[in-house]
Amino acid sequence: MQRIIIYRDMKFVNRTEESKRLKQVLSAEKSTFTVVYGRRRLGKSTLITRTLENNDVYYIADQTDAKFQREVLAKMIATIIPGFDKVIYPDWNVFFDTLSDRITQKFTLCIDEFPYLVASSPDLPSILQNKLDSKQLNYNLIICGSSQQLMYGLVLDSFAPLYGRADAILKITPIKMPYIQEALGISAVEAVEEYAVWGGVPRYWELREGYGNLHEAIESNLLSVNGTLYEEPLNLFKDDMKDIVKTATIMSYVGTGAHRLSEIAARCGEIATNLSRPLAKLVLLGYLTKDIPFDENEKNSKKSLYKISDPFMNFYFRFIVPNRSFIEIGRISPIKKILDTRFSDYVGDYWETLCRETVSGNEINGITFGMARRWWGNVSKDERIELDVVAESLDKKYLLVGECKWTSSENSNRLLAALKTKAEKLPFVKNHIIIPKLFLKNTPAGTMENVLLPEDVIKLQ
Question: Tell me: the pLDDT tens digits for 203-216?
């Protein structure tokens, strides 16, 4: 497992690869252009500011007009170029030309929330394109943004002015599950439960750290109108979605059990084709995923199910949204009772996802497996079965099949026998050697052969 870095404020966790890459590109002899993007709360700004040197300039753009923002940025640059703020810059072209003329040694300029700057100056990307193409920037430039859609449109789309100009593009994604265990100093079982609520967002981990246990943190941050994370999903959607109401509606229905396109459309009162685009966008942004049975073609499958992929979003739309009325009037006892009775099942759903992620592309029993998926379907006229984990080895010889249980007092001998029986009925099992695996919360009664516990899964992540 990769070494974890934890600072006292816990805002910078396990970003060793990103930090190394950023330092590498900024230390190049030539001037470089770097793009950093990803949703809010993931530590982009912390990553950048911890990498910058004392003579570098870090500026966070806002939604004020372009003239005011040039004045503010000029004042910041004046800390390394005396008098730079004594000039009135009529536009960004003059601003960057003057900066290039006056700089005496290479430094790094970071413009965070770059899309805000572009909103007030739509010509800015083209201006920077011209400077980059003509090699007129003699300093490092970093642009950063939380709106994945806007950053894509400015830099990653093939028609974007800045497309193909970046020396490095860093997409900051949620931190993987194993690191929450060391970050919070908890057991492997607790790590699975915590991650099922907070996901891989370091800011949420930081908020959680201030409480004695998981349920206290949930109550304070989510079960109160004044909770820090009470409106969090809506605030995140503002960065990338035009129709926040429709987005929240779709997520709410998926979170409460509508997984087929036809079901989601019926509950939304929409024609299914009208939802194709917003659903695809939510998948692209990492909020939803399409669950497709193993051995089905992703493009042609008619069995696709939409699931909320982000753990925090899943928890929020499963437990918070349906109970907002209780929260608004300050009566959270009913919600706490719901959590007491349903939380274990909720974590069990995430445990299945985690186990599939663990198998995918990993080496188990000395065999490397491809992507793992669920499988469900009819194996005869009268029998339908489901398997939590199915993955084929890269050499096509082996088929790993798995059962996931987030309950206590399981009998592994009984579970393995039932699992093998189901696996032998799979329509694609022919010519494969079956490798059965049980993914269990606690040590079972019976054999430990072919059993993986949370600590084993964490080591394999």
Answer: 999 999 989 999 99
Does residue 4 or residue 233 have the better pLDDT? 233
Residue 6, in any domain of the structure? no
Whether 338 and 250 map to the same domain: the answer is: yes
CA distance 293 to 298: 9
- pLDDT for res 14: 66
What CA–CA distances, in Å, run from 277 to 146, 250, 307, 395? 21, 12, 16, 37
226 and 326 both lie in a single domain: yes
Give the predicted TM-score (pTM) of the model: 0.89
| Residue 384, domain member (yes or no) | yes
Radius of gyration of the chain (CA): 25
Distance CA 37, CA 20 (A): 16
CB count in 10 Å sphere of residue 419: 22
**What residue numbers bound the domain in which 362 lies?**
357-460
Cross-strand bridge partners of residue 363: 368
CA 370 to centroid of chain Cα atoms: 22
The overall average pLDDT reported for the chain is 92
Tell me which amino acid residue 429 is.
V
Interacting residues of 229 by C-beta distance below 8 A, sequence separation 6+: 204, 207, 221, 222, 312, 316
304 in a structural domain: yes
